């Protein structure tokens, strides 16, 4: 695989280190963000918890920042598929052809971090490699920079995948616990069974929501999905048949993103007040287990909803939806002028498995 494809003179090779929550959805999420914001990119390689693209640095930062299941985005400086050297030799091999004086020209401190996918190449001790690579960088910089563990100007990342070593400059890294403050039980308005914020962000991203068009959730509940959309700087519209949910959504939005553009009102998802003017719908409808569907069976409710969503969406508009595994979403969508884009099963816990479906209006 040639990571320096000459057909892309302005695009540079980068890798995204992804969560292992699902084998495919984190990749789809990153690609959806890039496509939603029209960032040019070329797919170079997909592997377990790693996505390699030719892309602009700005696009990498945006996608890694927005994607819930992306750990970091890194600009590739070196890669190899042959890893059979001692720690000192490997450190020398990785660093020997990299011009650190150029990369570090505006930086005074750095840090090296080693990560791996699963147990890939576990014979290499991470700390030993971090120290050895750091020493090589320090030597190349003739001692003009220092290692800073707490607040480095620049971080270099080495990632061992199952069949490859990737080394580069970290563009963005997600802080641990960055979604914790928005956990359902920490919001001003709390309802049991609310979507976990990272999953809500995933659904919003898969709908290809962007700042130029509004994001609609017709079953908004206490506002988990539209809250994530607002934090992505989208204008959001939330509907719910229960006025308590509407008030709760407004409270949560006002708490976390008070200056965002949001509109939340009581409305029935079976009678959407839109026609051919919605680009992105992201939703997690009531399942009929711990929620109310107001007398309608879940499949009947979804049948009517998909009809309304088809009327509301523009051609090429995207509907991203989470639903119980046993509900035949694909069959329902086909009836209402949708093409299937993504249809993946994701395990939530022992009593709940969801299907994540992404459908494009024909």
CATH superfamily membership of the largest domain: Vaccinia Virus protein VP39
How much is the radius of gyration in Å? 23 Å
Provide the number of structural domains.
2
Write the CATH fold name of the largest domain: Rossmann fold
Q: Based on helices, strands and strand pairing, what is the structural class?
A: alpha/beta
Please, how many helices? 10
At the first level of CATH, the class of the largest domain is Alpha Beta
Which segments are poorly predicted (pLDDT under 50) over 5 or more consecutive residues? 1-8
Distance between the termini: 35 Å
β-strand number: 15
Mean pLDDT: 93
Strand order of the largest sheet: 2-3-1-4-8-7-5-6
Report the major sheet: 8 strands, mixed
Structure description:
This protein has an 8-stranded mixed beta sheet. The chain has a 7-stranded mixed beta sheet with strand order 11-10-9-12-13-15-14. Helix content is 28%, strand content 30%. The chain has helices spanning 25-36, 57-66, 87-95, 100-103, 126-140, 197-206, 224-231, 243-256, 298-312, 329-334; strands at 12-18, 41-47, 50-55, 70-80, 109-116, 146-147, 154-160, 165-173, 215-217, 236-240, 262-266, 278-283, 313-324, 338-349, 352-361. It is elongated, with a radius of gyration of 23 Å. The protein starts with 11 loop residues before the first strand and ends with a strand. The chain has 10 helices and 15 strands. α8 links the parallel β10 (236-240) and β11 (262-266). Residues 1-8 have low confidence and may be disordered. The longest helix is centred in the middle third of the chain and has 15 residues, at 126-140. α3 (87-95) packs across α5 (126-140). It folds into 2 domains: 12-173, VC0802-like; 181-361, 3-Layer(aba) Sandwich (Rossmann fold), CATH 3.40.50. By secondary structure, the chain is α/β, with parallel strands linked by helices.
């Amino acid at each position: 695989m040639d990571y320096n494809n000459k057909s892309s003179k302005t695009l540079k090779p980068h890798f995204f280190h992804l969560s292992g929550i699902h084998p495919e959805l984190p990749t789809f999420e990153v690609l959806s963000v890039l496509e939603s914001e029209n960032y040019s990119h070329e797919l170079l390689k997909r592997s377990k918890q790693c996505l390699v693209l030719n892309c602009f640095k700005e696009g990498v930062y945006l996608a890694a920042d927005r994607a819930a299941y992306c750990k970091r985005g890194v600009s590739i400086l070196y890669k190899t598929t042959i890893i059979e050297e001692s720690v000192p030799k490997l450190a020398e091999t990785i660093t020997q052809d990299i011009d650190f004086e150029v990369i570090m020209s505006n930086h005074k401190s750095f840090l090296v971090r080693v990560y791996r996918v699963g147990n890939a190449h576990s014979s290499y001790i991470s700390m030993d490699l971090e120290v050895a690579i750091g020493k090589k960088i320090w030597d190349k910089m003739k001692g003009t920079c220092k290692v800073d563990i707490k607040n480095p100007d620049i971080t270099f990342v080495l990632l061992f995948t199952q069949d490859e070593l990737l080394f580069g400059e970290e563009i963005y890294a997600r802080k641990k616990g960055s979604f914790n403050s928005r956990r359902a039980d920490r919001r001003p308005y709390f309802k049991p069974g609310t979507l976990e914020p990272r999953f809500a962000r995933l659904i919003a991203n898969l709908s290809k929501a962007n700042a130029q068009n509004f994001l609609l959730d017709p079953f908004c509940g206490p506002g988990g999905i539209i809250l994530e959309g607002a934090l992505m700087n989208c204008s959001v519209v939330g509907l719910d048949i229960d006025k308590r949910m509407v008030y709760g959504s407004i409270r949560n939005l006002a708490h976390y993103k008070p200056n965002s553009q949001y509109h939340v009102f009581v409305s029935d998802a079976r009678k959407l007040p839109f026609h051919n003017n919605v680009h992105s719908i992201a939703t997690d409808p009531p399942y009929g287990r711990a929620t109310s569907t107001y007398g309608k069976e879940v499949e009947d409710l979804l049948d009517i909803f998909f009809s309304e969503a088809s009327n509301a969406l523009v051609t090429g508009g995207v509907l991203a939806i989470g639903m119980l595994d046993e509900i035949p979403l694909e069959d329902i969508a086909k009836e209402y002028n949708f093409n299937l884009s993504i249809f993946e099963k994701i395990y939530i816990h022992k009593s709940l498995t969801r299907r994540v479906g992404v459908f494009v209006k024909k």
